[in-house]
Write a structure and sequence with these properties.
This protein is an all-alpha fold and about 140 residues long. About 65% of the residues lie in helices and about 0% in strands. The protein has one domain. The mean pLDDT is about 90.
């Protein structure tokens, strides 16, 4: 193999960014109804194995975003249901508000994570902290 046969290293930002961009878009669209978030998760899992390091960091970030948000949403939804049941005797009102607050904050957290991640992707960079809980 000669030096002419070797593939050149990809320039910054030249790696395929289509799959992470699609998943970011599906997640953002899904914040209005939820269905496309699941589709985005499937796309992220399906394309992560063949992705380059930059795209893989974004896909890992997106997969973690889904699972963290689902975990917290289940907690918030459970508190909301329990609070709604006990609201009949007025003791459930604080629990209901706590559950609704958790669900609202998770929605906002996911929105911010997706917007920040999409900005990093648009700049052509790998996600700097794909395993973080924050942004």
């Amino acid at each position: 193999m000669s030096a002419a046969d070797a593939e050149p290293a990809p320039a910054r930002g030249s790696e395929d960014r289509l799959a992470p961009a699609i998943v970011y878009g599906l997640y953002l669209l899904g914040l209005t109804h939820g269905l496309t978030i699941v589709i985005g998760l499937v796309v992220a899992y399906a394309t992560r194995g063949g992705a380059g390091p930059r795209a893989a960091s974004h896909l890992t970030f997106l997969i973690r975003t889904f699972w963290l948000s689902i975990a917290w949403f289940v907690i918030g939804a459970a508190l909301t249901v329990v609070g709604a049941i006990f609201t009949l005797v007025l003791v459930g009102i604080p629990v209901l508000w706590l559950g609704l607050t958790i669900c609202g904050l998770i929605w906002l957290w996911m929105l911010i994570r997706c917007v920040v991640g999409a900005i990093v992707l648009a700049q052509g960079d790998a996600h700097p902290r794909p395993y973080t809980w924050w942004f």
